[in-house]
Design a protein that fits this description.
Elements lengths: L12 H9 L11 H11 L2 H14 L8 E4 L2 E4 L4 H18 L9 H9 L34
Antiparallel strand pairs: 1-2
Length: about 150
Amino acid sequence: MTFTYTGDPASSDRDAVRFWIGDTDDDNVLLSDEEIAYANSVHGNVFFTSAALCEQLAATGNSITGGVLKVGDLQEDRGSLSDHFNSLAKSLRRKGMMQAVPIVGGTSIADKQSAANDTDLPSPSFTRGQFDHPQSNLPGDGGRVTYTGTT
């Protein structure tokens, strides 16, 4: 089992995951580098990866008996760390949710014109005025409303 921690969570996702979980002591290793890499490839976000790994540790928590939880100078003996890891997973998921950034498209005329001219962009399921001129929305036109007549 490979264990690497440089003490600089900003340097790598692996170090950040170890930092958030508290798996920084090479004498008390909870996860291998390979396990962290796999979880990160599935979840892609340090907080969600950390939360998923905490849930995994909680699920196997009965085998982590007699462990010592260390936070700074504070240390506490635990018979089972399942409750700790479940609580930590919830906290990390909340942190991950706060990292989500919504993307808003079509907020400018140029964006809308660019999207309308992009032939690789999927056609919308519905458009404004799509039933105004039913003769112009014939099958085979890709769902795009085109009007070629006069009103």
